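Hello again, I could really use a second opinion on something today. For a while now I've been wondering how a particular protein folds. Please have a think about how the structure follows from the sequence. Here's the protein in full, and shout if anything looks odd to you:

***
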Amino acid sequence: MSTKISYYFSKLDKFPVPDFFDGLTETYEILQKAKTYLKETLVTPDVKENNGEIRGDAPNLHGNYYIGEGTVIYNDVTIIGPVYIGRNCEIMPGAVIRPNTIIADSCSVGHGSEVKHCVLFGGSKIASLAFAGDSILGASARIGSGVITANRKFDQSTATLKVEGKRVDLGDSFFGCILGDSSRLGANAVSQPGTHIGPNTWVFPLTNVRGFIPACKRVYHEHKTVMDENEIVELKP
């Protein structure tokens, strides 16, 4: 079990500013740094720059933001800064990008999805109608349609992760999921607050996960499908 950045993310070059990680060793430090780094370096208070393409109605842009070349923003998108979106991304209709989010190059956010205080490495994708909150997606990681990365415990206490028999404080009561390089959360999966998933692991659809999940695993719930006889009923219009 580990909270070390090097275990989950090996492709730091798939990030807009590789030296962002200088001095960082733990996964939770990335989210902490994103808040200040955005305002001080990537999207300073005077930055409102859109180098991308708007298709359809103009998006709702609030606060400070940077949108890179080749990125396409579709209709009914809402962006609430500070937000950084790199080059050649797709932000699909109805998506909401909330403050303190960094999206690297060649990423996509699907129709109706909400992204809040997240860090996305290059090539990562979030499908439609998903919620990614206070989470990190490694290079080429995938979040399927309808996925929820739950980001706060019911009692609102600080998120923790059990590492080598000890509880590690993740530094915030808001903490979603660490999804390593090339890992996947299948459609309608749910990750509990503080979940850490190693690289190249597939969490199958409808699976509920928590805690630490190592690299290179397939994760799913065993279940039995029952088929009984059904009467023929004409449904009312």
Observations:
- The chain is about 10% helix and 30% strand.
- The mean pLDDT is 93.
- The helical segments are 5-8, 27-42.
